[in-house]
């Protein structure tokens, strides 16, 4: 019984430290962007809203890249679907974390954020999932996709929509989704054949 109490206390201490780091980083990132950077990040996030950016990138890859492009596009879109299902359909429902407090964010973009739970960042999960699934098949477009993916992750904190830990969890989910969508079909085929 004593070990369980000590473990619980350690977990509570860790969560308190994460909350403090989230507060400091959120406030620093939200206040630190120049108006030009702020506009650029917002424009990229707007393109990524509803996975539009990743669907367009997949279409360009499929159209211009031959078989490799179609394979990369299919892997990217499948990974996005898994990431969105897990982040928005499962995790947000289980965790139900509130968005960062509005008084932490020194600009009015905080008024435009969604009402849905904060944890994890579905935008980041989709961005990382697409990029990580494309890169092994076609490294150059995968590397290019990493740029807007990173911008989306930063924007989610800068706008006050997410805590840094939400974005980190979204990135981990995106990586896991890419890994699953690339590995599971091979494992299934190996088991059936």
From TrEMBL:
Q: Name one GO cellular component term.
A: plasma membrane
Alphabetically sorted, this entry's keywords are: Cell membrane, Hydrolase, Membrane, Transmembrane, Transmembrane helix
Which residues are in the Phosphatidic acid phosphatase type 2/haloperoxidase domain? Answer: 74-182
Q: Which Pfam families match?
A: PAP2 (PF01569)
Topological type in the membrane: Multi-pass membrane protein
Q: Name one GO molecular function term.
A: hydrolase activity
Cellular location(s): Cell membrane
Q: What is its main location?
A: membrane
The record's SMART domains line, in alphabetical order, gives: acidPPc
The source's domain of life comes to: Bacteria
Q: What is this protein called?
A: Phosphatase PAP2 family protein
């Amino acid at each position: 019984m004593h070990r369980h109490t000590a473990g619980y206390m350690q977990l509570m201490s860790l969560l308190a430290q994460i909350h403090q780091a989230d507060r400091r980083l959120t406030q620093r990132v939200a206040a630190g962007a120049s108006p030009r950077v702020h506009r650029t990040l917002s424009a990229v996030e707007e393109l990524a809203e509803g996975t539009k950016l990743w669907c367009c990138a997949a279409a360009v890859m499929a159209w211009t890249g031959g078989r490799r492009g179609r394979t990369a596009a299919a892997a990217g879109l499948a990974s996005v679907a898994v990431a969105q299902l897990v982040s928005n359909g499962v995790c947000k429902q289980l965790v139900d974390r509130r968005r960062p407090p509005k008084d932490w964010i020194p600009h009015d973009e905080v008024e435009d954020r969604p009402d849905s739970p904060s944890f994890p960042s579905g935008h980041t999960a989709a961005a990382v999932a697409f990029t990580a699934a494309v890169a092994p098949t076609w490294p150059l477009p995968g590397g290019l996709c990493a740029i807007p993916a990173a911008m989306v992750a930063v924007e989610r904190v800068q706008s006050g929509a997410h805590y840094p830990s939400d974005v980190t969890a979204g990135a981990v989910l995106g990586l896991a989704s890419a890994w699953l969508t690339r590995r599971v079909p091979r494992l299934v085929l190996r088991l059936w054949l």
